[in-house]
Design goal:
heterodimer, A: 112 residues, mainly beta, four-stranded antiparallel β-sheet, globular, B: five-stranded antiparallel β-sheet
């Protein structure tokens, strides 16, 4: 069966520091991968998605970037965090384009 | 762009009561999904609907794909405390970036024992 992991679970970072959040998927190959941000425990905002290694699409302009160095690894990064980057970051995978998405456990980021 | 209107935003109910929430859109969707998110965790898929008029149950949960393909509802019968969480609807139309899921803003459910 497929599983999705996110690391770390919680992160507290100072403003201006770099960021790297990792998402890995097991039990499937060539998945579509997604990064979402959820502020204040409510709606999901799609940040990035990837349909393959090295292929990244950005949905909203922002202070963050994403990379997919391996088939089942998706990384969310920032060179300099802003206060507004605080939130709950969710990674999701889907078997194909438009298929049901399955979410990871999330990473809670607090920027101080 | 396409939007989903999910209502109500929040609900405060007594244990044992039935719950109903819905999502509507001005666009036609090919798929409707319902997720539940427990506090501090990722959303978990509850029910997936693929055909107009489809009615699907998962335990005490029942969801329907509206025949106009522009709406869906989720019902929870005889609520219990562990039903607490945020429920999201999500819909999908095919083609391009529109093939990605579009999420509602969520219904926050609180259950009083």
């Amino acid at each position: 069966s497929q599983t999705i992991h996110q690391w770390p679970a919680t992160l507290v970072q100072p403003v201006g520091s770099p960021l790297s959040l990792e998402c890995t998927v097991e039990g499937t190959s060539n998945p579509n991968l997604y990064w979402y941000r959820q502020a204040a425990g409510r709606g999901l905002q799609l940040l990035f998605y990837s349909v393959g290694i090295g292929q990244i699409s950005s949905e909203v302009p922002q202070n963050l970037s994403a990379s997919r160095p391996q088939d089942r690894q998706f990384i969310l990064s920032s060179k300099k965090l802003l206060l507004s980057d605080s939130g709950f970051y969710l990674c999701a995978w889907a078997q194909g384009w438009g298929e049901t998405q399955y979410f990871g456990p999330g990473t809670r980021l607090l920027v101080l | 762009g396409q939007q989903l209107n999910q209502s109500p935003q929040s609900m405060f109910i007594q244990e044992g009561e039935d719950v109903s929430m819905n999502c509507t859109s001005s666009s036609i969707f090919n798929t409707w999904l319902w997720y539940k998110q427990d506090p501090g965790e990722g959303p978990v898929l509850l029910i997936a609907l693929y055909k107009a008029g489809e009615l699907t149950s998962n335990g005490r949960l029942t969801a329907q794909f509206g025949i106009t393909r522009k709406d869906s509802f989720l019902n929870i019968s005889a609520s219990i405390p562990s039903d607490v969480g945020i429920y999201f609807c999500a819909g999908r139309i095919n083609g391009g970036s529109q093939g990605n899921l579009i999420f509602g803003k969520g219904t926050k459910l609180s259950v009083k024992p």
